Amino acid sequence: MKTTTEAGREAGDAALGTRERIVRAASRLMQRQGYEGTGIKQISREAGATLGSVYHFFPGGKQELATEAIRHGDQEFTDILREALDGADDPAEAIAACARTVAEALRASDWIDGCPVTATSIGTAESAPDLQRAAAEAFARWRGLVEDELRASGFAEESARELAHTVISTLEGAELAAQLARDEAPLLIAGRHLARLIDSYR
Amino acid sequence: MKTTTEAGREAGDAALGTRERIVRAASRLMQRQGYEGTGIKQISREAGATLGSVYHFFPGGKQELATEAIRHGDQEFTDILREALDGADDPAEAIAACARTVAEALRASDWIDGCPVTATSIGTAESAPDLQRAAAEAFARWRGLVEDELRASGFAEESARELAHTVISTLEGAELAAQLARDEAPLLIAGRHLARLIDSYR
DNA sequence: GTCTATAACGAGATAGAC
DNA sequence: GTCTATCTCGTTATAGAC
């Protein structure tokens, strides 16, 4: 049995490898403070690692680390979305359930943990195009998940494709609105409206 | 007739007062680079003002200036929204037209000028709550505009209130998605879906 | 109101011992 | 792989002449 010599600063991350702890800390901090607002020193501190370790695993520096953090956030929401789509009877209800899940998480964090992909990538179009690409890939993956589910439920190709676009856009915007207003209403209303919109294409 | 002694660096801003030039430069730069990614020196340079002038007009420093920049962005989109609502026959068509307007502006900027309010306020929940409040007020104002128009068109109170929420959330999210994908499709699709959703409440 | 100079601090990144 | 020390540069903000 392997033992971990260092206790990570993050609850529950003690058993993780150093690289993974760094990525998680980066993702969580940039989710709250953005790319420019988060320092590498702060990340290494929170991850229970040294600055040298960060540059050992990410020789490309902050940009490379942030790109990995976005991929981590991508995977997080992919899991939430897949679970919602698998757990409900029809796609419309699944999307509404997904909105409720996001609302709960947002409230639980006292409205500070928004979408990690958006928060990390916004404002970096000129300075760090790598982040933009990783974020665009995340949006595309989420959209693809919804589109596949709609097609599998018998929706026409074009309807499925377009509805998937709006589902992701609306969830993203409603999360932003809910965070700013410190109120889950925007997300819950959006979930119901999306379900209604989807049903109107049956 | 008054003369302006200094030619501002911004095209068309030459005749403006110093304070206004600073606010506009701040709004435009933070729209592209975010709050943390934009420096006061860069703002003063682009505004054709000195650092001393910035602190003269905004003794509260960067936060005070950013708050004013958000209010400026608020007003900008308020104007776009009001024009769209006044120019169309019914609210559904007005919202779709608004989405097209936003898409055009986004493409014209080569996908770098997103929503100034969102870009400036995101990631500041912990460090600058003033910005959050100003951004929340902007969202609420836009929502109020849409809600009033819907009620004036005969929609039920609750429908108008909830639709207004989703209209703003979806436009905001679709602008984000369009910017990341460098493609206006998310916005154009969102505009059509919102019109359809609104019509379903008639 | 405008300008320059600078203080005080933190950032990203690197070197090299262990 | 980990750690510490340090280099260099940019940041916000202030002081004080004009």
TrEMBL record, chains A, B:
<protein>
    <submittedName>
        <fullName>AcrR family transcriptional regulator</fullName>
    </submittedName>
</protein>
<feature type="DNA-binding region" description="H-T-H motif">
    <location>
        <begin position="39"/>
        <end position="58"/>
    </location>
</feature>
<keyword id="KW-0805">Transcription regulation</keyword>
<keyword id="KW-0238">DNA-binding</keyword>
<keyword id="KW-0804">Transcription</keyword>
<dbReference type="InterPro" id="IPR009057">
    <property type="entry name" value="Homeodomain-like_sf"/>
</dbReference>
<dbReference type="InterPro" id="IPR001647">
    <property type="entry name" value="HTH_TetR"/>
</dbReference>
<dbReference type="InterPro" id="IPR054156">
    <property type="entry name" value="YxaF_TetR_C"/>
</dbReference>
<dbReference type="InterPro" id="IPR036271">
    <property type="entry name" value="Tet_transcr_reg_TetR-rel_C_sf"/>
</dbReference>
<feature type="domain" description="HTH tetR-type">
    <location>
        <begin position="16"/>
        <end position="76"/>
    </location>
</feature>
<dbReference type="GO" id="GO:0003677">
    <property type="term" value="F:DNA binding"/>
</dbReference>
<dbReference type="Pfam" id="PF21993">
    <property type="entry name" value="TetR_C_13_2"/>
</dbReference>
<dbReference type="Pfam" id="PF00440">
    <property type="entry name" value="TetR_N"/>
</dbReference>
